[in-house]
Specification:
Layout: H1 5-25, H2 27-60, H3 66-71, H4 81-96, H5 98-133, E1 171-179, H6 181-184, E2 203-213, H7 218-228, E3 233-238, E4 243-249, E5 252-253, E6 262-267, E7 286-292
Parallel strand pairs: 1-7
Antiparallel strand pairs: 1-2, 3-4, 4-5, 6-7
Helix pairs in contact: 2-4
Length: 311
Amino acid sequence: MKITKTKLVSAIVIVVALVTSYLFMGPQPSNSGKLPARTAEASLQPEKQQESQVAVEVGNQAGQQPDSSQAEPSADPSTKDQPVSTMKPPDAASTQTPSPAKAEAVPAKESDKDSIKETPSASASQSAASQPAVKQEIDPKTGKDKYLTEPVPSGKPLPVEPQNIKISDKAMTATMSVTCLTILDNMKLLDKEKVELVPKDGVIFPATKVTFYEGESVFNVLQREMKKHKIHMEFVNTPIYNSAYIEGINNLYEFDVGELSGWMFKVNGWFPNYGSSRYQLKEGDVIEWVYTCDLGRDVGDTYNALGATKQ
């Protein structure tokens, strides 16, 4: 078989074509294997950008669409970014909502606590200090106040009405005693059945340091201490004088030793011209309950001896 020039040229063309196709087709499989990975990675970035944009738009607009966006690419790594972006609007709302509430509630609670703590002490101090400093309102026609009390001597504590007093829990101390020494000098006037009720030394309750609470009155302390030590005491409330009236202590009553006999009290050596319920105590006061047989003259009350009430 003769090889002609035409056949030789054709063979060369075929070989060149094969070599050319091999050169062009050989690298394509290796590139085609990597292209899907690159396209996959490249496709994720636009998705992340789109999803982040969606999340931002959701945070700025309503916050409802993130649910659908999260549900579709649940297996996609881009979902990790979505909860962070979608959770920011609720977090921002929750941090803003409690913070104003707390900012408003804390001062209110502190002010309430301050008011609860300060009100009793302030009111007690006002009742103990400010109220006694108030001028006694005297009716020019009667020369007395509305509870029939004559003007209080200058420098002496003014009466404080029980209904206006607020007792605090601040404990204070005073000294109190109950005696009936004058009866010893007037035993002949005393009913024989009551002779045994009179102590030989005339002391029913010796001078004792007692505890009272800021705002309490002389009557409050007497009532508590007599009950505490199981000593009989009887009293009656007298609205006209706005005070309690002590009728008897240790079963020794008014008028038991004559028409001018009965119980009186003095504080720091002074016999008030108003009832024991209206005398507000102070720290260190000395209270003395004494029995008089002569309307106070025999116990040193010369001021009230002319006609004031005994207690």
